[in-house]
Amino acid sequence: MASIPMDLDDSSGSAPTLNITRTIAPNVPTSKVSDVMPVFRPTKLFKRDDLKEGKPQPHILSIDFDDPGDLCMTSEDDETIQIYSVKEGRHDKTLLSKKYGVKLAKFTHNSSSIIYASTKQNDAIRYLATHDNSFIRYFEGHDAAVTSLALHPGSDNFISCSLDNTVRLWTMNSKQWTAKLLLNNPTLAAWDPSGTVFAIACPGSASILLYDHRNYQRAPISVFDVMKSRGPIEPEASFFGYTTLSFSNDGKHILLGTRFSGHLLLDAFDGKLKAFLRRPNGATRRLAPGESEGGTVEGSGDCCFSPDGRYVISGSRRDLTVWDTMGTPSAHKILDPTYILEEKRETAVVAFNPRYNMIATADEELMFWLPDPHA
Question: Residue span of the signal peptide, if any (predicted)?
């Protein structure tokens, strides 16, 4: 692997090129995630330099990467969107959404356009061209705050969940939703890697509902009982505090993140608990999507799978916690961390770049993590 500059304390003002090794691409050097996972290190810290003197750093609400993995985007609670170049290790662009606010910002399959949820004025989802900061379309219909946006892995369709107790399906080509599901407290949505099944997490009923995308008008094809499958986690974690819902890329597991003492790794076929991922350094101070009491600001995604589906990476009050899903849990289904990656800052939002061996974490500042070639 090429030398990677470790420039956390770089004060030169220059933006170094980060020599990042691809994990998924033809005819280029690759490194197995399992080979580099224990040697990830905080490598590049981004502080906002556009803030007025004395103004605190805003909280970062979400992190997303575009499909090629070359761009990283954050939505922040000062009503801005920040875009960064991954390979160059630099800040590229600031987009303002002062009128409507912003959260849950996600790239579409076109790297020059994004969707995001509003935080004021109304509850519309906004479709934005990033090259000129112009709106392409508004997706209107929700009557309360949007809590989740999930983009289809292979098409221009997406799902939204809202506190208005609806899940809506959309296509980028129309401002009108294509389908609406009435559910009890649907908070999070996720697609399986094939795009044929989607899951909806409903903490109000302690359940995860799985739907066939071709026949979503019918009853769900599976209903997973979170209360039954919660294992040793706190009972209240069954009914609120869901932070993340995602499928592993091999389709075998579902990750249900919580803002409690750990996360739930479930079998994607029957919903049974595979392991309770114990978080020894404590949960972050963020609220779960849709919550308004008991924390600082709302987050979106404090844990994620690695691209190979083998590892789960999670934030905490300090450090980054990593579990190997191939590890053997205890008799009570508790799986302790395989690695603790040192970081003194709180890691409240976590994302793994699906195209590169690279992790991004954030609370008030964005951090890029890369494998240390000298470890």
Answer: none
Q: Which CATH number fits domain 57-336: 2.60.40.10, 3.40.47.10, 2.130.10.10, 3.30.390.30?
A: 2.130.10.10
pLDDT tens readout for residues 244-277: 999 999 999 999 999 999 999 999 999 999 999 9
Q: Which residues contact 68 (CB under 8 A, 6 or more apart)?
A: 111, 355
Q: What pLDDT, in 10s, does the model give residues 271-305?
A: 999 999 999 988 888 999 989 876 678 888 999 99
**Is the alpha carbon torsion for 229, 230, 231, 236 positive or negative?**
negative
The Cα–Cα gap between 327 and 218 comes to 37
Query: String of b and e for 33-70 (b: at least 16 CB within 10 Å)?
Result: beebbeebbbbbebebeeeeeeeeebbbbbbbbbeebb
**Residue 104 CB coordination number (10 Å):** 24
pTM of the prediction?
Answer: 0.91
- DSSP three-state, residue 213: helix
pLDDT at 13 over 70: no
